[in-house]
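lol forgot to send this yesterday, sorry. struct tokens for the thing we talked abt
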């Protein structure tokens, strides 16, 4: 069975009206995407921001009368937004997206593997993780850089804090690599649920991994702290992150683009001595030791 998809270009203030009209015209789904190369990297909890220019795609059954749909849309606007129809062939959609995710090697011993793939090296340290509602699968440069850093550490019997844990991938990796105690912290309840679920699927118990909000964070500083978030919250949280890192401990910061490196270093260099930055694409990993 084929489908018809109507693509419309509109400003964000027209998005809600168009979405409702498409559904009223019989669309089985409406997808919103960026139409002006304006990425939204990380909204605040509870926010659903939109791009200034949006592309709406309404999916219709193949027998839809396209003229009637366009007439109904045109009746609601002085000028109908730019549009075009597309024929979409039916596919096994539930499996198609899986083709984009493959096992990822993150250093000498650590692999990130989706559940539907057999680990390439069964005797390696294999973290089983599927894409979900929280950020962090290992495929993005920021997460990959942090995983590489973790893989190169000797963290057996050490403690680690993952500040802004997202999916929990870094915290879980630390446990699997031998950390004695790991704390995963996030202000998004969805991230805490995702971390707990992923920990369960990797056989990690509550005695190894504490999952909590910032308000519930234990006061003890950790031997290692990793924060893969964004530049603005890293600057805002500098005092808290500094307190949470033990003297002589290591700090790993990511989620930073190259142009933000000096700003981040200035926020922390009173208490930390930074190693040279490591880059991948336009992203940077900063590692420092607390003085």
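and heres what i got for the seq, position by position
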């Amino acid at each position: 069975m084929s489908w018809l998809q109507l693509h419309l270009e509109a400003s964000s203030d027209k998005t809600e009206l168009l979405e409702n009209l498409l559904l009223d015209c019989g669309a089985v789904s409406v997808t919103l995407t960026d139409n002006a190369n304006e990425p939204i990297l990380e909204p605040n909890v509870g926010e659903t921001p939109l791009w200034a220019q949006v592309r709406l795609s309404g999916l219709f059954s193949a027998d839809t009368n396209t003229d009637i749909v366009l007439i109904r849309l045109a009746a609601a606007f002085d000028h109908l937004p730019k549009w075009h129809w597309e024929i979409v062939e039916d596919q096994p959609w539930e499996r198609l997206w899986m083709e984009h995710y493959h096992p990822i090697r993150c250093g000498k011993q650590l692999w990130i593997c989706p559940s539907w793939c057999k680990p390439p090296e069964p005797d390696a340290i294999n973290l089983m993780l599927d894409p979900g509602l929280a950020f962090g699968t290992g495929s993005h440069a920021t997460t990959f850089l942090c995983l590489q850093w973790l893989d190169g550490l000797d963290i057996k019997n050490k403690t680690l804090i993952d500040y802004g844990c997202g999916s929990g991938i870094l915290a879980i990796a630390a446990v699997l690599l031998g950390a004695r105690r790991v704390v995963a912290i996030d202000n998004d309840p969805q991230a805490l649920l995702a971390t707990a679920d992923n920990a369960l699927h990797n056989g990690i118990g509550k005695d190894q991994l504490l999952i909590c909000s910032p308000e519930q964070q234990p006061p003890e500083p950790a031997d290692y702290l990793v924060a893969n978030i964004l530049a603005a919250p890293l600057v805002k949280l500098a005092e808290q992150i500094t307190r949470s890192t033990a003297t002589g401990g290591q700090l790993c910061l990511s989620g930073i683009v190259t142009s933000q490196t000096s700003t981040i270093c200035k926020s922390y260099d009173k208490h930390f001595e930074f190693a040279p930055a490591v880059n991948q694409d336009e992203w940077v990993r900063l590692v420092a030791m607390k003085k």
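Residues 7 and 84 are 5 Å apart (CA to CA). anyway ping me if u want another try
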